[in-house]
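Hello support,

Our group uses your service weekly, and this is the first time we've seen a run hang past the timeout. The protein is DUF2956 domain-containing protein. I'm not sure whether the cause is the sequence or the server load. Input pasted verbatim:
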Amino acid sequence: MAYNKNRKAAPSPQIQEEAERIAKATQRPGQTKEQTRLINQGIQKGIEEYKKQHKARARAADKAKKQQLRQQHDDNDETFEPEPGPEPTTASSWLPWWLLALSWAGFALYWWWQQPG
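Update from on-call engineer: The timeout came from a worker crash unrelated to the input. Re-ran successfully.
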């Protein structure tokens, strides 16, 4: 069975009820049932068109939002450079060596004092 693009789907019951309510509320004295039915159909088409436009705007906004998030993500990845830490000063670079030498000296003194005699 082939899909017919030109065939319109029937409006939902909620749209039909809303359109009928609005058409009856705006009915003029002396207006025929045929005229009210035509107004009802026009209102249904208007509601359907509004919903289509609203969905299209929502899709476009969602697409733009995703594109913006992707762009921000790409920008963050490209510009990410790790921040260099503070440059070690000469005093702090000698500290581990001094501690190593002091610990060896402590071990030597301990060993020397533990020797008999």
